[in-house]
Design goal:
mainly beta; Metal Binding Protein, Guanine Nucleotide Exchange Factor, Chain A; seven-stranded mixed beta sheet; three-stranded antiparallel beta sheet; globular
Length: 123
């Protein structure tokens, strides 16, 4: 089984398309309170892609979130339908792609869980 796979995704309204190459071994579930709030869910699954293996068609809306650490992170989503697309650093060198809108989401089982101190007690 190959670790690196090509992924594709289109937002709900079709305005924004993403293609990337990600490593399945770097798929994570983030349980931080920001991910819970942004997604309206107990966690968010992400697949990681470096800038050179990430491509986007369309222009997402970007919101800059400042974490408890003081670090700034860009949160990108479709301004029309609200589909969450990715988060990235201010230099846009590494993209945490939201797996929920990817065509290959079933192949991207999180193998790491991060910020689990914020996990729901029932998980």
């Amino acid at each position: 089984m190959l670790d690196e796979i090509d992924v594709t995704g289109i937002c709900h309204c079709g305005k924004i398309k993403i293609t990337a190459k990600v490593k399945k071994s770097e798929t994570r579930a983030c349980h931080c309170t920001d991910c819970q709030k942004f997604s309206g869910a107990p966690f968010r699954a992400i697949a990681v892609a470096p800038r050179g293996k990430f491509s986007i068609q369309g222009t997402p809306k970007e919101y800059i979130k400042i974490g408890d650490s003081g670090n700034k992170r860009i949160q990108a989503f479709c301004s029309d339908c609200g589909t969450q697309l990715f988060a990235t650093n201010m230099e846009k060198t590494l993209f945490n792609i939201r797996t929920g809108f990817l065509d290959q989401k079933n192949d991207l089982k999180p193998n790491q869980h991060v910020f689990t101190t914020s996990s729901m007690t029932w998980i």
